[in-house]
Amino acid sequence: MLELDKVSKWFGGLPALVEVSFGMEPGRVTALIGPNGAGKSTLINCISGVDRAQSGSIRLAHHPIEAMPAHEIAGMGVARTFQNLKLFARLSVLDNVLTGLTVAAERSFAVSMLRLPALRHQERQLRLRALEALDDFGLAGKANWPASALSYGEKKRAEMARAFVGDPRLVLLDEPVAGLNTEETAQIARHIRRQRNAGHTMLLVEHDMELVMDVADQVVVLDSGRCIACGKPEAVRRNPVVLEAYLGRMEATA
Ligand code: ADP
Ligand code: MG
Q1: What CATH number is associated with residue 229?
Q2: To 5 degrees, how large is the angle CA 11–CA 36–CA 178?
Q3: How far is the CA of 36 from the centre of ligand 2 (A)?
Q4: Cα 174 to ligand 2 centroid, rounded to whole Å
Q5: How far apart, in Å, do the first and last CA atoms of the chain sit?
Q6: Alpha-carbon distance 231 to 209, whole Å?
Q7: Are residues 153 and 193 in the same domain?
Q8: What pLDDT score does 121 carry?
């Protein structure tokens, strides 16, 4: 589904990604872990076209996408959530999710926003689909609220609904449970499991190792922009290099 080959990215003279290579099978969940500043968000930005790698190749279903603009990549069925939420504050929750459907129809966020008036006259089907997605994420009752009125946890779920509404081929989730309480985390974890069981291919950036071990088929570990390990969750968890670079450090600070 996704194939990264020696993807590198610098900011100024500083390397954020150094020849990162790994592949993702369809219908599988890959967890991307690593300490803060490891390059996880940068990698998601490069895959989704929000940012551009300076070298290396990124293929989606054998199609090179590394030079494509973000809206075209979205049009190919790549959806994402952002580490720092990106909802349209003044739009209703439902309209925010509707932009996910127009993105799926090969339009950028900005363009889809401009097209919302036209969308309103389109098939009720789109709205029904958006409502269904909101229902999936426990937000149907707040469809007509302005997005700004949602709690932080609800905003995270609204972003998830927007990412999943267009039935994407690949979903990139950047720290979907960061900052959430235990109950909200369990709720999102249930959603992620359900999406996995429905056969969605996901790349999940996550610090919650319990969630990672539970949902991931494959774990990729980044450290200072380098992929230091890649494999099955249990193997990665026992990998001494990973323990040294990441898990040990986390335990030391816990
Ligand atoms: P992570 O998501 O793993 O915490 P990031 O991908 O956000 O890490 O960051 C990786 C590195 O790239 C960090 O050193 C960060 O400071 C740097 N970086 C990220 N985005 C930018 C940017 N827009 N400009 C300059 N440096 C950046
Ligand atoms: Mg990040």
Answers
A1: 3.40.50.300
A2: 120
A3: 7
A4: 7
A5: 36
A6: 15
A7: no
A8: 61
